[in-house]
Amino acid sequence: MITITSTETAKVLVKGTTTEMSSVIAIVGGTITFGGKTLPTVLEIFESLEAYNLDPTNTIEVSGFETVKDFDLSNEDTPETFKDQSRLVAHQEYVAYLKNLDFTAVITGI
């Protein structure tokens, strides 16, 4: 799980509106690929941890960042140097992506 927080320069918005969310919770899912070079991921977004705990199917749609991404895990060209295809790496890659967009993003559980 990642807590994503709006900043002065990066805003989490309810999709299709100008309503800003101060923060949201993201559940990270991923798929392992045969070649090990990429990690397809998807985020499910919730208004809060409480909202997730009440109903884990009650997701919200946001804009401001991508919720479906393929991360390149290849550090070099040989499979021995690839990053692991794991939930931890999926979380770390998403946090790096979000921070690059100027969001505050913190892994709060896996």
Architecture overview:
The mean pLDDT is 93. This protein is of the alpha+beta class and 110 residues long. The longest helix is centred in the C-terminal third of the chain and has 14 residues.
Provide the fold topology.
Layout: E1 2-5, E2 12-14, E3 20-21, E4 23-30, E5 38-46, H1 49-54, E6 62-63, E7 68-72, H2 87-100, E8 104-107
Antiparallel strand pairs: 1-4, 1-8, 2-3, 2-6, 4-5, 5-7
Number of contiguous helices: 2
The total count of strands amounts to 8
Largest sheet: 5 strands, antiparallel
Number of domains: 1
Beta-strand content estimate = 25-35%
Q: How would you describe the shape? A: globular
Which structural class matches the secondary elements? alpha+beta
Low-confidence stretches: none
Helix content: 10-25%
Q: How much is the average pLDDT?
A: 93
- SSE succession: EEEEEHEEHE
Q: Whole-Å distance between the termini?
A: 6 Å
* Strand order of the biggest β-sheet: 7-5-4-1-8
Instruction: Compute the CA-based radius of gyration.
Output: 15 Å
